[in-house]
Amino acid sequence: MKVKTFKQGIHPAYNKELTAGKALQKAKDPAQVVIPLQQNIGAPCEPLVKVGDQVKVGQKIGESQSFVSAPIHSSISGVVKAIREVEVGTGRKTLAVIIESDGQNTLHEDVKPKGDLDSLSGDEIREIIREAGIVGMGGAMFPTHVKLSVPEGKTVDTVILNGAECEPYLTVDHRIMIEHPEEVVYGLKALMKVLNVNKGYIGIEDNKSDAIEAMIKATENEPEIEVVPLETKYPQGGEKMLITAVTGREVPSGGLPADAGCVVNNVTTAYAIAKAIKTGMPLIERPVTITGRGIKEPKNLMVKIGTSVAELIEQAGGFKGKPGKVILGGPMMGISAHNIDVPVLKGTSGILVLTADEVEDFEPRPCIRCARCVDVCPVFLMPVTLANYAQHDMFAELENYNVLDCIECGSCSYICPAKRPLLHYIRLGKAEVLAQRRKK
């Protein structure tokens, strides 16, 4: 079977052997959960409960009237002990509902099957997805019902599921495809029905041959769905890269996947959609890889949203020696955590612990004009130029050089022999350009 890919990119060490062969286990039920009311790109939710309320599993506890938002549900049954600001993994503070478990895991009455896929209309499926609070579970946390609302004037004819999981160390998408292939296909068929398209693809890197086999078997009676093996290369799972690799189409500068006739979702998101339709269970748990050579027992766990990162590290045997760094997500696009007493969110795909020996302190050196950052940039930008503009507050130039096309994959910083923090400066530049746009 022919392996497809995109131009440029990098080949970091993948380090997936620590957990790739480890089946998903159910994490211990937490005694308390901290559930932030903003777990998506877009508007935060307002609380629907108050201190002292008894809540059940799957009960909606937060909602926003904004279109670009997603409801929040309780992941356990118990009593609301507090509603207050808490810190999340990014370091920002947000309002959260703190629930103490009663140990009963009593289901809310609204958690019931939503009907057969054949009998549901596309609009009904989109509403089920919205009500279930489903967001992109690859880490972006963009509300899925918004992604399924194609802007007027654009036509979508293809849905692509991202099973690439190109971030080093992470293996939860891999395990979902091996252990729940039928649900992944069911979720893809639901997405295709919402968008009224008859072509679906599942793109998987060729370092996951068992997942490719599982998905091919699950789709053998689905002529409208094709499994596409992809070269193992970073960032193969980026939306634009995936679209190009699978279909040969290009998303234009400043454009959306819909401009190439595509919508892209993660395989674990498709799994969550299948659960929401089949059982009525909203997005209250997700798979998380707890891994790295700084962890005693790396593993893949199915985790209730709101469980603390510190608690999960303990469930994986705790730290092996003194940790050098804890990263939420993968090493390329994840966030370095200065505090592990933070909750798992809908987009928390991994907890990576590096040893002190693996963390290198360095001083950036002057650029040697080697252009390796340009050679690897998957969206064909000039990272060193953008970083220089950002350092010197040249925001008009940044916008002219399409800084907003940067997908923040970090390939430029990874490859730079002078160890220049290019992505750091580009992120700062993007934030300022967006802030200036909002003022206009």
Describe this structure in words.
Among the domains are: 117-279, NADH-ubiquinone oxidoreductase 51kDa subunit (Rossmann fold), CATH 3.40.50; 372-439, no CATH class. α4 packs across α7. The protein has a six-stranded mixed sheet with strand order 1-14-13-17-15-16, with helices on both faces. The protein has 440 residues and is α/β, with parallel strands linked by helices. It has helices spanning 122-131, 144-147, 172-179, 181-195, 209-218, 239-247, 267-278, 309-315, 372-376, 383-391, 395-400, 411-415, 422-439; strands spanning 25-26, 32-36, 46-47, 54-55, 60-63, 72-73, 78-87, 93-101, 158-162, 200-205, 225-230, 262-266, 285-291, 299-304, 323-328, 335-336, 350-355. The chain is built from 13 helices and 17 strands. Its main location: membrane. [4Fe-4S] cluster 2 binds at residues 377, 406, 409, 412. Belongs to the 4Fe4S bacterial-type ferredoxin family. RnfC subfamily. InterPro entries: 4Fe4S_Fe-S-bd, 4Fe4S_Fe_S_CS, Ion_transpt_RnfC/RsxC, Nuo51_FMN-bd, Nuo51_FMN-bd_sf, RnfC_N, Soluble_ligand-bd. Keywords: 4Fe-4S, Cell membrane, Electron transport, Iron, Iron-sulfur, Membrane, Metal-binding, Repeat, Translocase, Transport.
